[in-house]
Amino acid sequence: GNSVTQMEGPVTLSEEAFLTINCTYTATGYPSLFWYVQYPGEGLQLLLKATKADDKGSNKGFEATYRKETTSFHLEKGSVQVSDSAVYFCALSEGSGNTGKLIFGQGTTLQVKP
Amino acid sequence: DTAVSQTPKYLVTQMGNDKSIKCEQNLGHDTMYWYKQDSKKFLKIMFSYNNKELIINETVPNRFSPKSPDKAHLNLHINSLELGDSAVYFCASSLRTSGGDEQYFGPGTRLTVT
Prior knowledge:
The structure holds two protein chains of two kinds.
Chain A: E1 3-6, E2 11-14, E3 19-21, E4 23-26, E5 32-38, E6 44-50, E7 56-59, E8 62-65, E9 75-77, E10 86-93, E11 102-104, E12 108-113
Parallel strand pairs in A: 2-12
Antiparallel strand pairs in A: 1-4, 3-9, 5-6, 5-10, 7-8, 8-9, 10-11, 10-12
Chain B: E1 4-7, E2 10-13, E3 19-25, E4 31-37, E5 43-50, E6 53-57, E7 64-70, E8 73-78, E9 87-94, E10 104-105, E11 109-113
Parallel strand pairs in B: 2-11
Antiparallel strand pairs in B: 1-3, 3-8, 4-5, 4-9, 5-6, 7-8, 9-10, 9-11
């Protein structure tokens, strides 16, 4: 079945450091890929998405490129801030069946220290 | 204005009780979902409705029964609560069931079964 694997956390960085959170997926067909962010005590918010191979999603300084050849969708940010501290989820939505079903990775906690 | 709202935010109850969680979206979306987030923050879909019709039912015990009185509401009723039901339950909605559509999440309901 389809699945998403993220790097283990927690990830602890100093402010202004470079961030990479790895995400790889297994899927049949042509899934859409997402990064969602969950701030403490809140629901998930869409951070960025890509719906086909080689698309780059970007938002708030975060970027991720849909790499079909390596089945990856790694999240990057050039300079993190304390306010970026949250749990980040990589997810895919199956391309066939059109149910909208999201399959999530296990989440990666990011802590940014001043 | 809150896009996806859930009530209650916290629910503490004893084993064997029956409880309900309500969800409402004011986005005009056709599709609504219930997700369960366990203590390790892993998210898994439980149900999905499209225009009041059940389209996803993910091997959830039949003690869980979703009900969609109209496309803006999706409630979750849980019978005979067990300790393992303790989790955060998130409601979400999307415009359609298309795989590329963003899902909007509610703030979550933290259920604690004692």
